[in-house]
Amino acid sequence: MELTWIWIPISMFAALMQAVRTAAQKTLNQSMSTMGTTYVRSLFGMPTLVVFLGAALLYTGHGIPQYNPVFLLHTAVAALTQVLATALLIYMFRLKNFAIGTMLTKTDVIMTALIGTALFSEQLTQTGWIALVVVVCGSILMLLGKIGTAAFRESGETFSSLLLGRPTQVALMCAFLFTLSYLFLRDATRDLGEQHHFIWRAGWTVVLATGLQTIVLGCWLAMKEPVVFRQMWKMRGIASFIGLTSGLGSIGWYSAFALQNASYVRAVGQIEAVFTMLISWLYFREKITALELLGIGITLAGVLMFRLL
Question: How far is CA 259 from CA 36, 65, 107, 254, 256, in A?
Fold first, then answer.
């Protein structure tokens, strides 16, 4: 398989793991705080990431990277913004009338492309822009097909109040923080030298970023919410599952970022919505609407367009 497009199946695998992890996090969040639920993915995901780094070292034959302050800075910023964005995303699930908010989190793909080309090293082709827009449109159609208009009618609020409401504000900030994390992670993997194998660069970046998240957030929880650690032990079964899927997903994302533009990777990652829908259909026997099917078709078409890059 050529490395020129191997990032596509890697991104799709990462999206699948994220869909499974998010479903499990929603369940855990019912009995644990938002920050505690966020911390589980880092703490319980570290063993998987360490094993991956070890395998990367053996496979590539490379060792410890030379001290690189720019790499450390980019990784630290990416780790911090990712934690804050994940916490906001989980918090948004608790808000009333979060339908519009959920839809607006999809803007992270557009934000990544715009901010990335303006301030970072992103370079998008015309085909890339078209594919990106197609994927986002498909994702929005899937979401509209799922929530319909009932969610807005039953809220008793006007469209303008929903659009300017707290869920919308949280969603836009969430999308912005995720955008920053993607772009800084992409740059961090490049800081290690693109002449090195992408697996080696991804391994060091994901272990450092997740390690920083584990230490910083762990210290914060120890001071503010020490009860979380007892809760995690009692729910170690689902916590371990979240950690495993989160670790595998992170390995996929970081590996893809080491190979391709962050905006392209995140656009392909929108296929997560398709996986989420299939999980609901297969395991929860939920019906799929015609609009959702249309959205699936458009999303898949957009993903396939990236093969033309």
Answer: 32, 18, 22, 9, 5
Q: How far apart are CA 194 and CA 258, in angstroms?
A: 8
d(C-alpha 201, C-alpha 62), whole Å: 10
* 265-290 confidence digits (pLDDT tens): 999 998 988 887 887 777 767 778 88
Distance CA 99, CA 144 (A): 9
DSSP string, 49-113: HHHHHHHHHHHH---PPPP-HHHHHHHHHHHHHHHHHHHHHHHHTTSTT-HHHHHHGGGHHHHHH
- The identity of residue 254, as a single letter, is Y
Residues of the chain above pLDDT 90, percent: 56
Distance CA 272, CA 114 (A): 22
Angle, CA of 91, 203 and 191, to the nearest 5°: 95
**pTM of this structure:** 0.88
pLDDT 10s digits, 154-187: 555 554 555 566 777 888 898 999 999 999 999 9
Q: Are 261 and 185 in contact (CB under 8 A)?
A: no
Task: Look at the alpha carbons of 43, 20, 162, 137 in this order and tell me if their dihedral is positive or negative.
Answer: positive
Q: What is the DSSP string of 222-287?
A: HHH-THHHHHHHHTHHHHHHHHHHHHHHHHHHHHHHTTS-HHHHHHHHTTHHHHHHHHHHHHS---
234 Cβ contact partners less than 8 Å away, ≥ 6 residues apart? none
Give yes or no for residue 244 having a pLDDT over 90.
Answer: yes
Residue 156's pLDDT is what?
52
Distance CA 21, CA 50 (A): 19
- The answer to whether residues 28 and 37 touch, using CB atoms and an 8 Å cutoff, is yes
